User: Fold these one by one.
Assistant:
Number 1:
Amino acid sequence: MRGYPLLWAFLFFSGGIAYTYFFTINLALLLFLCGMASLISLRKKFFILVFIFLVGVFYSQARFSSYLPGKESVIKGTFDIQGHLAYSKKINVYVDRYLKDGKYYIKGDLTEIPQGLKSYLWARGFYHGLKLSHFKLLALKRSFFRERLWELYPDDVAGFLYGAIFGDKRNIPRFVKENIYRSGLGHLLAVSGLHVGLIAGVVWLLLGSFGLSPRGIFILVIAFLSGYLLLIGFQPSAIRAFMLFTFYGIGKIMGFRVNPVNALGASGLLLEIWNPFVAWDAGFQLSFTAFFFIALSLELGLSPFLLYASPQIGVLPIIALRFGYLPLASLISNFIAIPVFSIALPLAVLSLVPLIGEFLAPMVTFLIELIFFISLLFLKLFPSLNL
């Protein structure tokens, strides 16, 4: 545990959560095995880690049990619906049919989440399915941001930007999405550290032009990012990036040295306490692993090439296990696409501002279409390997 105690705590807590996901719990056997392992080791650090593992087991099991459908399985009321996802103040549910985005009065019976969607939905706070028996549209949802993007950009570019900024990938053409993921550029569409960092950087520069103090700018950026997380639905990978930004900012202001690996462990641990099922989410696993390799590379003082390559290589096992393929083009495609995207995303965010957008739109369109070309080119040169 020396050096990275928070990372070890996160890993063993996650191990306890993973145990409840993959295995039916036999608590007596589990306690016996952990007790025997602890006695064999007779080391204080091992006792602590085993205890954290058991806390993860009991905590996730308690949370899991509390979300099972009870006797009152009929749900009715007013919900905000986005496709299959229905939100209300009391409960969020996954509905069994796709509806246009809007406000609905719905009625139906609670069911279990489909197995193939459980890891994705539980990580986002959707613990129940709903078999609709009645629904009535009250009002269609209008989004200024969505309308603005489709006003400025071609459909495929607007869909890509809406997915990259807000995490909603439903409007991206299938062939574009397939090329992006298969060429190893799928992280561009998962709101995470890159996105949060770029958006925070733009806001910081804009506020800095008004002559505010760094502390004042930091507080305002945190407030802005909090509103952004609310807008995109508190996606796990984005929350992880927000926590890291907050830790670093507070450390910088207070004059402390923040260890990036421990900060990563702390953010993961807090996230799992908030919702233990984020450990199941592929986006969280990929963003956490990528940042871990970046942080470790910085700690070890590795060369710039290894700093770039390590997260690309580190996430390959997760992609292979979760999605069944290896994006062989990833190392090369990202080398070109990430700098292009790092310019395009801040400009796309600024283009949402009236008048400014009309000036920036042609440049952003060119950059995003360049990313489309890069994904297609390198996918042709280095096809992904199906497993």
Number 2:
Amino acid sequence: MGRLASIGVKAEDSEEVRLRKAALTLLVALIITLSVVWVGIYAVLGLYLSAAIPFTYQVLAVASILALSRGWSFERFSAFHLTLWLILPLLLQVSLGGFVASSGVILWSLIAALGALIFVPHPIRWFAIYAVAVVVSGVAEPFLDPAPMPTVVNVSFFVLNIGAVSGAIYFVLRYFMRGLAREQERSERLLLNILPASTAKRLRAGEEPIADRYQEVAVLFADVVDFTSISEQLTPDEVVGLLDDLFTEFDTLADRWGLEKIKTIGDAYMAVGGLPEPRGDAPEAAAGMALEMLEAAARVRESLQLRIGIDLGPVAAGVIGRRKFAYDLWGDAVNTASRMESHGVPGRIQVTERVQRRLRDRYDFEQRGPIEVKGKGTMAPYLLVARPGGGERVDGSARRAAAEPR
């Protein structure tokens, strides 16, 4: 079934287009299979003209699937089958002598009317044609001679027509809706990779603009030391694989420490604590994650070193953009945390004085001394070197020890 569903699918097709193509191809195959019953019974009863009509559909349908596999456009394929589903049941009903004699075989045209909602633009046109076909068959009814049909066969065909049409419509709708649900779930996961869950919910609800102010947020920036030189020694696949492994580790740490990943730019990673839900231990969580990020980098590649900067303060946060939106932060704490990273020491975590004041009773620090920071003037940052409670020191000379499992 998988190979059949892939007929006519192109590499550039979106997931929704692939789903539409697969649903129609499988529906056509189902009707080809079901038509065997009608062809066989009509032939046994000696109604050869009536048997020829569903047989003609089988031949044309198989030919159309082969044409689709050889490049026939899906638009023509779908219009072709909708046309057959509208015309052939009407012809079959006329050949059998009307509604009762044909056991309501015109019901098969309902597949075209409802299928048009999924497979083609302007579905109302196809429903209008279906309505006209039903009216025409009703007007023609008094002028038709009913075919000799045993009562038991007539009743059986009523059951078959109603059941088969209902089943075919149910099949295609269920297949399509399940596919849409999978695509929606995938889109939801992608959305949650861009936005915090509560922000994504607000965006789906149509709220705009989305902008909030938070009074105390811990902002963490990290990047790989000398990544340009490292990447020049690797193939593009290896560069992507390295960053994927590294950022996957960071994402896991962000989940564990309760920080919100904001974005990655090249080899830089940004995460924050204290939004969208405020928390009193945001700087502690950011510090704990930063220490484990050094360990994670060493696990991914022993020679990798990070520069990490952390600051604490009020920020504004919101969603910008329309087609390609992004969640971002603004404020002095954001700029200062970025400067702490860019002016930092390889293999170390550099924090501002306000972060050190909040954490000095729980973490060990080294004072780096006054340094000139671009856009900020002279600052006296600190280097975070140990875990809460006096854990093992983490600095540039203890990278290997830091990478060992704890």
Number 3:
Amino acid sequence: MTDPHELELNLYIFILAGFLGYRIISRVPPLLHTPLMSATNALSGISLIGSLVVAGRMESPLSTILGCIAVACSSTNVVGGFLITDRMLSMFHTRKEGDRHARSAGNWAVLIGIVVLFFVAVAVAFAWKNKPEDISKGVLRYLYIASAVLFVLGLQGLTSPRWARQGMILAGLGMLVAIIGTLFNHEIKTWGYVWITLGMVVGGAFGASLGLTIPMTAVPQRTAFSHSLGALAALMIGIAEYVLHLNPEHREGLSSLYMTPLGFEVIIGALTFTGSLMAAAKLQELLPGAPMTYKGQNLISGLVLGCIVIGFIVLIFAPSTSFLFFLIVIMALAFGCLLVIPIGAADMPVVIALLNSYAGLADAAMGFVLLNRIQIITGSLDGTSGFLLSLLMCRAMNRSAMNVLFGAFGKPVEKTAKDTEPKGTVRSIMPEELAVMFEGARQVIIVPGYGMAVAQAQHAIGDLAKLLAKRGVEVKFAIHPVAGRMPGHMNVLLAEANIPYDQLYEMEQINPYFAEADIALVVGANDVTNPAARNDKSSPLYGMPILEVDRAHSIIVMKRSMRPGFAGVDNDLYYNPKCMMLFGDAKESLNKLFTALKA
């Protein structure tokens, strides 16, 4: 990229796509935040477009191999992302409509056919009017326009559970159109299709296995892992393009104007790759969930980041300084680890959303490097989605993004003499006693948390809710924005248990109902129900909006032990005279309760 006017036009496209993405994504309900992240993760596989070209050009053995790796990584995200998104969306239904909204797919298919046929007709007309060497460029241009329209319509579908699945059909078709069009790119050589096929088969098979087999409880770590693959694809393509332009034949293209987006691509791609791997390892409990801190950590991280920025500025003015380029890549890889390791599991919803944003920005930067506007548009949409979700998660915790990234929230709190004093009496209850309480209940609110996911108790909760509903009990589910380790994760798990989404209430909706509830049943949620966030100014949770379960007539908490939550502080709710603890594995306790109720 050496034309300033081309850069200016692409910047306009990037900014306008970001504003469009903000307008659409801000309308996506919290119910669909997890499918949204999975869908944008699939769309981030648009890096496949650039990867196909780099692998197929066969400019050098290194660029071909790196391009093939990028094809495999991107194919994994595309196939796996769309499959798991469809699995999630197929589970959402209301009590009245069930799965009937899927019947409207025929109308959408007609609309899809009209849109695609229109752009294909335009592409054919253009090809007919122009010289043969311009045919592939003309076809690609209009197919990419069709893809962009379909991607936007796909995200628009996520603004309603009723149309979300059909929207993803549109987005998937958009990706297919873009991929097929790219395969006709005149730059791809005949033998290049061998490398392309190899990468797509390997990546597609791996993505399909992830998308079809991974349990819904493992969606957060799968999403983080997919972010790492998308970032790795951007990094591979960035390195391949830089090495290519070091050759005397292409060195004239290695200008400061070209180096700017290329530097952004490799820096963001590198730190997102390692950061996402660290996040996935924490979520999979391969690394401790508590913050891993050390003396002077913020100073060291700041120095590494400062060296990256200074090195990047120098590289812009001296693009051919190859040792500095690879040093920046190494430092960016290290910074990704330094960024995520000190962050506790409590902040994973914010971290995953931020990594989603970074992966989108890396894709957009690749689009600037390869002059591919569909990548710029899709990367901007993806980046906007992650950034907006991270802001929503920070607001839900009443914390700033800087505090999340550098505050080590979740680090074990040292106990003082005051903290060790008894706060009150903790009462326990048995499943048989709880069954008697449910006999007289008329309104029950169930509060799921990450403990429910760990115990895989969502189906047991679904069975309990159905039994209570048959007995005339009104059952509602209270969902906190940061319950679990991914935005909207609780909604997906409950949908998997066939709980209609019109029984799921967000925090602002449900809080007024707690005072009317006979029983508030808390299953594995801790910090999001702690009254200290409202009453104790010395608590690290103070100011965080919570689910006001302490206002219910009776409170039942299912928990393995009295161990504190991610914030490392005791939950004052457990000492409330209205609260009783049902200790044990949530799934086993619910099954015993279900048996007692039926008896």
Number 4:
Amino acid sequence: MRILQCFLLVVSILFTGILAAQTQDAFTHRAKIIQDGSIPEMGSSFVVSVEIQGEAATDLWYSEQHDVVTDEEGWYSIKIGSGVTSSPVTLNDIDWTAGKLFLAIEVTDAFGNAVSESVNELLEIPAIAMTSSIESRSLITLACLEDLEELRAFQVPEHGDMICIKGHTSPRDGGEGFFYFLAEYTAADDDGIIIKPNELDSSQPGRWVRKLDGFININYYGLTAGRSTDGVDNYLKIQRAVDFAANNRRNDHRRAKGEIAKGNTVFFPNGEYIMDGSVKLYNGVALLGEENTMLTARRNASFDYFFTIGGGRVTISMKDMWLNGNKVGSIGGMFFKAQPGPDGTGGLWQSRFVNLNIINFMGHGIHLEGSDTMGLLGENNYKLPNQFNVFENVRITRVTDESNSLRMTMYQGQHTFINCLFMGKRDRTSLGTNVFISNSGGNVVTFLNCTVQESIHGIEMENSSSITIDNCWFENLYNAVDVTGGRSINILNSRFANSAGYGSERHTGPDVLPQGIGPATVVAAENSSVNVERSFVLVTNPNEPEVADSFFIVGRNNIGNGLNTNNITTRANNFADDRLSRTFGLVPGIDVSLRTIILNGRSNVMAVFDGTTVLRFIESTVSGGEQISLTIRKDEGRGIVKIKDWKENRRKGNISLDGRDQIELADGQTVTFMKVDPPVAENGDEPLYKLVSISN
């Protein structure tokens, strides 16, 4: 059994277009022939007979035939008006306004057997009109309403009726489309997708609802590309589209299929759109542009950020667009501040940002702000993080010394930045910081294959933890990475070119450096745990004098005795010139107090003996089998210190000297121990620290 599935590209189901054929009009009819309910009739020959009839079948206006062959999927296509006909009448001769007209199509196979017969009334749509171009070619066009105002003024129809409009405000402005009428619908008129007839007041049911194919085109709300739209509350049009998308997302699981237009992606076609206010994004909304989609701040505008987020957990996406601050006021790109929803939780969760260019903002490019998870400011909860977010191919260039390309403050966690750019001014005069991270808790942030360049500070961190910088590119910086109060900061497999004091490129940096900035460094750390491995450091010209003034790593002093409390591990790094490997202050100083030294995560320290001259206990967080090294520093007395054996009495110590009662060490000597866990330690449930070596 053969079944004909067809549509007409002008009338009936999809009445949307016209194709001219030589000197007369033609419109396209396309159909698919299948058999047994699913098997396409591939490569088969058929005869398609077409008639345009009046109300009586004998009232024939036009007829023609087509010989067709189906394609590999069973489809054929014909142009009605260009077939074989014995009638002198053409489509041009039909009076389309004389009364009801019907399109009859009969399909027969090569043996004359009928496959399908169908008759469809052409006037199911409002009207069909004939017009002539200057080349005497006629076009069949839909008689649609001009705009949304005409739609509002149209008399209230029956439930399910459909009508078309030519544009939101004027024909072909991008707001054209089809609307169907829902007699029981009561949502507010949003001037784009939901339209209330003028005959009804806001409490009465009955709304026109736009037919959507998944995307919410911003043109539906009257926002079109071009600077002619400058200063006409464009942000409200975007907000209405976002609100509709968010409401669709919230109600999608409750709504009966087909009750209202679906879609939660707001689409911006190619072009420049003027922003004159801030837009709030809600859970489930996606913003999508094209390669040349740009949102540009209006001249003399005054608002904070292009985009913010609402309360509760918010999952959004943004893809393929430019955000241009236009160097206006103090406007920023995005500010995503975690705010509580009904259950007390909130923040930016599981969101994705792809292929964005963020430029010319006087404020921060992207600012992520979480809550005070440690309770330092009185909030004392862990419910308001920004976390589980991915930023891919996001490029941010800042233009002021006070702003950051990327700023992350308070509780942040599980962010991933892939192939992103964080850049200062392109004229190489930027002060300030490209990436700033400050936390009271949380973290786990990864920068993978990212680029940081053109600034005093590339990345600055304060009180942050579990930050990984892997396979990244740093260039033209005074300080590439600066860490204060950091824990588990990992800088791996990266490339640093002219990234300490601008290397040999200082002449292209700022004319005047800030006072008190300190030495030029690739990595600077203060009271931090930092791991720097397998990275490569180079400069453009090693013979420039600036090279001798810079350091690879500096452990800054922050305690009174001139030593520091860092734990800096450096391994397998490479240098284009040996002078680029200079370090300072890598070994932290730890006081021996009450016969005990507390190392925490450190494994190579300066053991500072002041008034205390005996060491009996070592406390550390290294694992069993790992070694620790103590370099002796004795500030008072005769310069000799003692380390005592535990003598099988754990109350008197946890240091094993392999049979010796004690050892005496002079200032500057280094002693190494290995941590031995129970039961090998033979010290109950406590570890021992066994002597490995003593330096001369």
